[in-house]
Amino acid sequence: MISLDRITKSFGNSDAVSNVSFSVPEGSFLVLLGPSGCGKSTMLRMLAGLDQPTSGKMRFGDTLVADGEAGFSLPPADRNAGLVFQSYALWPHMTVSGNIEWPLKVAKLPTEERRARVLEAMEMLDIEKLANRYPGEISGGQQQRVALARMIAPRPKVMLFDEPLSNLDATLRVEMRFELLKVHAATGATAVYVTHDQVEAMTMATHVAVMNNGRIEQFDAPDRLLAEPASAFVAGFVGTPAANLIPIENGNWFGTMPDPLLRDHSGHAMVRAEQITLADEVGPRTFDAVLAEVVPMAGRLLVTGIVNGTRITAVSDQVARPSGRLRFRLPTAPAAIFDKQGTRIS
Ligand SMILES: Nc1ncnc2c1ncn2[C@@H]1O[C@H](COP(=O)(O)OP(=O)(O)OP(=O)(O)O)[C@@H](O)[C@H]1O
Questions:
Q1: Which of 217, 233, 249 finishes a domain?
Q2: Per residue in 236-271, pLDDT tens?
Q3: 6 in the Ramachandran plot: left (φ > 0), alpha (ψ -120 to 50) or beta?
Q4: Tell me, what's the ipTM?
């Protein structure tokens, strides 16, 4: 179990992480998801013991690993936690097996035990054939497998990942997502995984903490983030495609078309792409748009147009008119309404 109790990390006058509390059970796969600068790497560094919280407490199981007020932080080596970075950080002068063995040597494990663990880790990542190669002699994807093997060889209870797949191409990324989940399931460790890629969060996580400006916008299971986003930020960040956030003003779509369903609300109405249709005729809740792009997806089309400066995406089977103009029809009810601060109100 990992639990955080009101963790804050300040740099000078600004908080990189602000008053964050959550807990996840042992064996979870927690993803810290958010845009650049939201504080997710700072969170991970505190979990690893590389940074100390300014205030708040952090526990791994029953062990207190950091206490900001008391100025206490358990050193990284005493946390039974492994870390994998975006850059693989392998020792270039050591072979693959030498790299994997290194942390076991540091931990002073006997030779036989080290050999067995190196072999076990290489088998799990399917890299036995690379044992005697040097990092410069293997591909980026293979290097990331070695970094993973090196991380799991000491059998950490907590596995920490900082954007580990972002240097890989799209196909390798999908492959490595599967490998990571396999390793996680086989070890039973608790994983904390930092990414700005919501697809990684949606496909791998048991729990997701969506972060924005150092705070947690929503802490939930991936499907809950999609079904019940707590804020406009979450609604606009998750989903493929993310839901449309349509400006509403005093109960008017785009500030121009009144709709009793919007009551008198101002802010944004969430409308999913699959709720919007393309219309030939002008009618209730139709809006003319300028075509921005058409993306084929799973046999259907994601059609994006601009209405009053807002990008709107619909799922359609219909190819848009060649004129570059199109007409969207909004559904009778939005999936959610957020106020001007982005808080969900309906
Ligand atoms: N050592 C530091 N000194 C001062 N400010 C820092 C330091 N480290 C991080 N920050 C600031 O804290 C905020 C959060 O940074 P952090 O690196 O945690 O974000 P992030 O979500 O991981 O972003 P990215 O995905 O770009 O790495 C940023 O505004 C950053 O400028």
A1: 233
A2: 999 999 999 999 999 999 999 899 889 899 999 999
A3: left
A4: 0.94
For residue 254, the enclosing domain spans 241-335
Among 7, 10, 11, say which to mutate for ligand 1: greatest number of ligand atoms within 8 Å of CB: 11
Q: Answer yes or no: do 275 and 258 share one domain.
A: yes
Measured CA distances, 118 to 98, 151, 155, 179, 327 (Å): 9, 11, 11, 17, 60
Give the total number of structural domains in the chain: 2
**Ligand 1 atom 8 nearest Cα:** 42
Task: Write out pLDDT tens, residues 65-82.
Answer: 999 999 999 999 999 999
Identify the domain boundary among 203, 233, 263: 233
Q: Does the pTM of the predicted model rise above 0.90?
A: yes
Pocket of ligand 1 (CB under 6 A): 11, 16, 34, 36-42, 196
Instruction: Name which of 34, 41, 43 is nearest 211 in CA terms.
Output: 34
Which residue's C-alpha comes closest to atom 5 of ligand 1?
11
Atom of ligand 1 nearest to the CA of 39: 18
Do 54 and 81 fall into the same domain?
A: yes
